[in-house]
What we know:
- By secondary structure, the chain is an alpha+beta fold.
- The protein has helices spanning about 60-70, 75-85, 90-110, 135-140, 170-179; strands at about 25-30, 35-40, 45, 120-125, 145-155, 160-165.
- The chain has a three-stranded antiparallel sheet with strand order 1-2-3, with no helix packed on it. It has a three-stranded antiparallel sheet with strand order 4-5-6.
- It starts with about 25 loop residues before the first strand and ends with a helix.
Amino acid sequence: MDWETLYCPNQQCGSYGVVFRQSCLVRNGSSHGHKQALCRSCGQSVSIRYGTAYLDLNTDPSLFEMAVRALAEGNSLRSTARIVQIDKDTACNWLHRAATHCRLVMLSLWRDVVVTECQLDELWGFVHTKNEHLAGAKMLSATYGDTWIWLAFAPAYRLVVHFSPGNAHRRKRICCLSG
Length: 179
């Protein structure tokens, strides 16, 4: 949380998106213990936590960070909840909060990436049961059986550009269309 990255969140304001030093934002005390700024152009207050995963977080940031680190290392929701001494639903909510923020950051950083090389691949697996062992009624279920994932990967950036999951019937249709 840094003053340098803070900007006015009002999209109609002339200072929208302009960082703190170059905008009309001034430091304006705190609200609920969190520093805030005031935009002199539109009069809107903005928390220093705006644009971060900490916005409206009602706990110690170090506890949140510890839980997110544990989850990122592969700990389960329940074990993370026990380690950090929080409810498992809270751990799940914090995981969602961190994932949503990471997605927004990633979309912002990768917005204008020019992909010059893309590799395509497919991955087969099954959900619950392989198609050959499915009972007749379960074969109609779209959630059981053989599953394919088609990937588009940009090796220069080590970035999965697109992935598309589907079943074996979809794979046959795609193969027929492509020749």
